Amino acid sequence: MGAVGRPPVCSYEGSDYQTSFWEQGGRGYEDAVEALALRRLLPGAGQLLLELGAGAGRNTPRYAGFERVVLLDYSLTQLQQAAQRLGHSSRYTYVAADIYRLPFVAGLFDAATMIRTLHHMADAPLALRQIRQALQPGAVFILEYANKHNLKAILRYGARWQPWSPFTLEPVEFIPLNFDFHPQAVRNWLAESGFRRERQLTVSHFRLGLFKRLLPLRLLVWMDGLAQRTGEWFQLTPSVFTLSHAVGETPSAQPGTFFKCLACGNTSLDEQPAALHCQGCGKTWPMIDGKYDFRAASAPNARAGTIFPPPRSETAQTSAGGCVPGIAKTGAAAVLPAATGR
Predict the structure, then answer these.
(1) What is the mean pLDDT of the chain?
(2) What distance, in Å, lies between the first and last C-alpha atoms of the chain?
(3) Is position 289 within any domain?
(4) Between residues 305 and 27, which one has the greater pLDDT?
(5) pLDDT above 50: residue 4
(6) How far is residue 193 from each of residues 126, 130, 197, 331, measured CA to CA in Å?
(7) pLDDT tens, 193-229?
(8) Domain holding 43: CATH number?
(9) Which of 26, 118, 230, 293 is most buried, by the most CB atoms less than 10 A from its CB?
């Protein structure tokens, strides 16, 4: 496992997921309808956005209305791919860190997104509480999650082709460290974590190979765009997007503060040529090619495992989908006490 008591989750270190799954995997439909949902939910402008599970930066250009974007992922190689795509502009900050232990001062961000990431969370409520702590009061939070209460799962359960019920609130782990969630459970967790849900869109209504082969992409996206608005009444798709706001009396970050030391909580970190140095406890956090690396204390006993998490796919028998554990052609993804995903 790793650090005692810390939830394990998949790392995409060394994987070419962006290329093999998105660019060469025939996912133009999924990418387009997710982009449409983001446009409908994102505010027109903002100052500092935290992109959780940013991966290789597939969605980052869609946050053009924000002055700065922090790309966070556990995998350093994914962030390196993102930097190659986006560049080392001062608008982007790259952070390798664990979502269960975010290295930011409280109340720093005025927006956050978490797309195709929650399905790798063994402890989703813990992750949501960490995110809320990093947000200012009133901040926007856009969350996407894999829906266990999808039409395919309901039909399979009715036909007795799957043992788990799509109607119960507990997550289903259909293969190791790949979870589907019930919409009501996610709504409950958001409320308990200090979020007020404002909107809900259902996405990927036509995620079937037959539809994608027979119908033009523009038509599929237009149809999905119409159906997304039914999300407030029905959640039967494999993917659900929610828009929430951070509520409650919580502190906002003090001017000039940004990172905090994960070892002692001190917010005074000196930036040196290749590291951040904590003035409180003396801990040093490395910087690798301009990317901040906060993983060392997050996973002191982490070891690479043998689970290769599948990309979420329309071909699987669950809503999140994918292949079974085995040798990954696109690079191994290890089991670590961290948080990542696409």
Answers:
(1) 86
(2) 22
(3) no
(4) 27
(5) yes
(6) 9, 9, 11, 35
(7) 999 999 999 999 999 989 999 999 999 999 999 999 9
(8) 3.40.50.150
(9) 118
For residues 209 and 315, give the distance between their C-alpha atoms in angstroms, rounded to a whole number: 7
Instruction: Tell me which residue has tokens 């998105």.
Output: 22
| Tokens read off for 243 | 């828009």
Residue 288 maps to a domain: no
* pTM, full prediction: 0.87
Range of the domain at 20: 9-259+294-336
Whether 48 and 110 have beta carbons less than 8 Å apart is answered as: yes
